[in-house]
Amino acid sequence: MLVFYRAIPYAVACVVASGYTWMIWQPAWFWIGALVAWILCLYLCARLISFDWQEKTYRFFLLTPVLFFTSSLGAFLFLESFWSQMALGVATAVCLFFFTEQVFYYLHLPVRYQAYTIEHLSLVLHVLALYFYASIGFGLQLFLQIPLWLIAPAILLLIVYMLAATFWVSKIEHILVRSTVITGAVLMTELFIALSWLPSGFYVNAALFTVCFYLFLGLTRAHFFENLSQAFLRRYLLVSCGLLVMIVGTAQWV
């Protein structure tokens, strides 16, 4: 049985890679590959946690990779270049492989699990997923004229989950972070609405939004870990401000 569970991360990567291959080479029927790959990915992730829906730990191990894969599939629809589509498919398969592999070690082979690996990988998946979802949200508003009052609640719920899941996997008591999660989600949603008015592309808006989310998440985690020193704060601000300046400076403004 252990061998079966060990094969699941490889199966997830193969399913994701096959789904993207189908979508790239069969664009007229891309939805078939996307739907089949999504269902199989959901099943494999659920099988990896032994279909235990009651345990909060297992719900996190299921929702995080599935939400990330869903965001990647949505972002795929806005890509036109063959190489960008290939890069997205490869990156998605690699990220999901490493995450599910560490989940396997954590649940079924604890002696091989390296401490804090899932914490770091979940942070990466949440940041990337938020960038994809923000790109989708800004893209839907730009191309389909979807009103913000329909998009903003979805962004709010996603941020609530990502903040709560990141704090939970970092072993921070939920009582301590409850107000931070709600306040942070509201502030980030307001930022999303404000960025939608910028005369720039939806990828630029999503990048600005994601950098701000990363800054907020990093500083709040450091605060709860009592690690928010001047050096840490200076380093985070320098990196974030540098990224923001680079994004704004290289963006094409309408």
Tell me what the structure shows.
By secondary structure, the protein is mainly α. It folds into 2 domains: 1-114, no CATH class; 118-254, no CATH class. 81% of the residues lie in helices and 0% in strands.
Low-confidence stretches: none
Number of helices: 9
- The structural domain count equals 2
- Range of helix content: over 70%
Strand proportion, as a percent range, falls in: under 5%
Spell out the helices and strands N to C.
HHHHHHHHH
What would you call the shape? globular
Number of strands: 0
- Note the gap between the termini: 57 Å
Question: Which structural class should the secondary elements be placed in?
Answer: mainly alpha
The mean pLDDT is: 91
Transmembrane segments: 7-23, 29-46, 58-79, 85-109, 121-140, 146-168, 175-197, 203-224, 236-253
Keywords: Membrane, Transmembrane, Transmembrane helix
Write a concise synopsis of the structure shown.
The chain is mainly α and 254 residues long.
Could you name the key traits of this structure?
254 residues; mainly alpha; 2 domains; 9 helices; 81% helix; transmembrane; membrane; transmembrane helix
